[in-house]
What we know:
The chain crosses the membrane at residues 7-23. The protein has 268 residues and is α/β, with parallel strands linked by helices. The protein has helices spanning 7-27, 63-67, 85-99, 136-146, 161-166, 171-174, 198-210, 226-231, 242-262; strands at 71-78, 110-117, 185-191, 214-220, 235-239.
Amino acid sequence: MGLMKNYSIYFLFSILLIYFSTIKSSNENIKNINNIDMEWGIKVEETNGEMDKMLLESFSNQNELASNTKANIFIINDVSSSVPASKYADTLTNFLMNIFINFEINPKYINIAFSPSPGDSNLWVYLPTFNMYNDTTLLRNNINSSYYPIEGQQSHGQKQLGSIIQFALNPEFLKTGYDGSYKPHIIFYLTTTSSPDSDTIKQAQKVINNGKFKIITIAYQPTDNVESLEKMSSCFFKATNENNLLSLSIALSRKITTASSTGTEYQC
């Protein structure tokens, strides 16, 4: 779906579609995910060597520092048929929310923009904008409901991903709340087995080279798509089970906190 010239009109259109999409997902008995996994006692041996062991120390001493962390973060999640909602919606929503559980989610601290990346035959309905989230409730609901398209069925492909990533260089998007003084600036792309096409890789490299954002790609249980995902990423992580996801969420939280406290961008 092409980018709309009139940002304000499309924003209103997006909000209406999000509203109806959320109602639809509720009618389909989506599980309540308010009870985020709070068990931070991670054993290094459970990570199977996927992450740097030094990043997996307890996060308990970071809480005060994390509450003052400032960052601009743009979340993009793959909601194509490669990520079936019945299997992954709750697991991957919990993973993303665990990253931010110790942070202040609002425009003054962790300022988040969000957009799912739908399958090729699904309508892209979420216009990403900063200054939208003032706590985790709406963010959690939007992420979870995005796995349930208004058409009813998820479709294959990620051809729209390149256009969504392009927003990172769109002046109208940046005007919604991007702050150059906040660090780090991160785009999170969360997927499973999808592979980006050549255009998406090209657009991602433009964003990385521009310097406004680092792109961190996370693949849950990937297959033969790792190489292509690495090409579109500043940093790439993979996880093979839910223990890996929990460990990775802690590691990412710590790295975000460190980058913010030192006034630097995210270091891979």
